[in-house]
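Protein in question kept in full:
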Amino acid sequence: MLDRTLKVLEFTKVKEQLIKHASSSLGKEKVENLFPTTSYEEAVEWQNITDEASTVLRLKGNVPLGGIFDVRPYAKRAKIGSILSPHELLNITSTLYASRQMKKFVQDLVEEELTIPFLEGYANRLFILLDLERKINFCIGESGEVLDGASDKLKSLRSQLKTLESRAREKLENMIRSTSTQKMLSDAIITIRNDRFVIPVKQEYRGAFGGMVHDQSASGATLFIEPQSVVDINNSLNETKFKEKQEVERILSELSQEVAVEADSILENIAVLAEIDFMFAKGAYSQKIKASKPKLNNSGYIKLLKARHPLIPKDEVVPNDVELGRDFTSIVITGPNTGGKTVTLKLVGLFTLMAQSGLQLPALDGSEMGIFKAVYADIGDEQSIEQSLSTFSSHMVNIVDILKKVDGDSLVLFDELGAGTDPQEGAALAISILDEVYRRGARVIATTHYPELKAYGYNRDGVVNASVEFNVETLSPTYKLLIGVPGRSNAFEISKRLGLNQSVIENAKNHISAESNQVENMIASLEENRRKAETDMEEAEHIRKDAEELHKELQRQIIEFNEKRDRMYEKAEQKAASSIEKAKQEAEEIIQDLRKMQKQQYASIKDHELIEARKRLEGATPQLTTNKKTTTQKSANKQKLHPGDEVNVLSLNQKGHLIDQVSKDEWQVQIGIMKMKVKEKNLEYISRPKPVETKPLATVRGIDSHVKLELDLRGERFEDALLRVEKYIDDALLAGYPRVSIIHGKGTGALRQGVQEYVKNHRSVKKARYGEASEGGTGVTIIEFK
């Protein structure tokens, strides 16, 4: 990609945002060197790496990336025999510890059966150098000092130093405490000059102490003298310090040699940690801008759903849908210079660069991006009233350069094409340039305020008009892109809103040709019809989804009901057969007993009496009979039913709520997420919600008078879903519902868990549970209000 294109499309600003999420200088270096790839396979792999990092961050919250330093120079110096400083060795051991922690973190994720192929591959390349890490930590303290225990010799030398320092101080303290010498001193202190202990002596008493003069005050009145009595001690002290320094250097040299042995492994760890830090920086940035992974293609097809420019504040950005490269390969955005057109242009270009750099896009799931070999952009500050020839010339230089290179694998962005010269010539030139780029097979988006280009999209196959919606009431653009609708000037409406006399406006309209008026009226009609069509389509799509879900749920419940009924019949038959068999056995035993009695009493009991006794016993045995009175024929509760009542549907043995009475003897009932019509005789009254206290209109303003008994959150983002749940609970409480359902689906469980935690902590919720099998299972949360 050209550096100018990266700058114009503000890719460098995206990198400035991204670099803030890197944990080390290694990750920051990777961000600084990030450029879009032109390889489809590489772009797909980069996207998968970022998505893996984003998934881990979502599940774990954070990653152990602290304590990583760029120790590549230290390892390379150690390899050529240099002695590393204590602080350099500390940075090495800190990085080794970070490598060990990262490897353990990844192994834990693998044990949890999380699919992380890229992270697992990186971790397998990490070397665990525990011996080197321990040796350095044993010898070097946290503050960068070589510890006494680094060697026995160093420990002994430092013990000697303490002894010698104590002897020197003791001798000098005796001198400064002596009353005979105090008058000779400028101050009763012991100090150090040239690494030797000295005392401050007045100039006139120089000869009283002997020894050596190491320094004097600025005025010359005080001399810093090393008395002869401590010269030998100071000599021993300096000699021991020299030996100590040699021992410290020997220890550092030994540790540096250990680093040199493992230098290649350390360099490999640095390369791996840089990749890991980089991938999690991209993952964290995705979370920051609420981005999703785009589907990539090699056919130049772009489809963005609710795309948001990442550099515009969240409370100001307007999401837009953009599609290019299938039904049409060129978009011409027409309309006045009221803003919004350039934003759309930059949005598509920046998203292309981000997708090809492995960055996720702030757009809804399902967005697609084509991979282009080159992105060309001619975007400048041509939005001023006056444009000089030099401005036109500079843009033509860019356009000429683009036309030399553009081909079928290019994305071309023209802002205010043909501006800066005579309108007729500029429009003609713009049409010719667009035709040439289209002929080359490139994908192109161009903005222009020339009215001549409004007809261009209608007269060319593969080209579509578009405009940025303008709100005449507020005199500002809404920044909503309208594909298929050319822009109109709105000059008369704006002038009228600003107070221009109506007669002047009418006079101006007389100067416009009939054809121009017809075109403007046609565009206005198109805008109105489009808005209505979008509203109708959204409503129809919602109804279609509801019907589809209802159909699936009804089918599932019918199958479940039939299976349950069959199981109950089978169980009842088995129980009845068992009871009959048991009764027959008992009867046979009674007969046997009677026969024995007959024999014992010598025919005192007649045979016909035995037969009669058997009949009586058989008549007493339980029989498998079908209860002709079914549950549907139970007498209905005499309680008069009202919408909102909780009832039992006798045929299904399921609880539900009445929505509305559809006929004299039939009601619409809500059971879980399923709505169905049920005969009144098949309903059994259970309870009625308590009446809600009437509140002033001001407190319920804006609440929809018809609140559904369920809220469908499937496909929603986590934060948006919780906002909808909060509003829906308020609406349901105002509507007086005793119980409602929230459909969140099963998915990964994040949304489901978030909804459960929110509603359980809500002050007005009495009980929250997952739905039963007939109510949607764990994909639905049932709420009962207090």
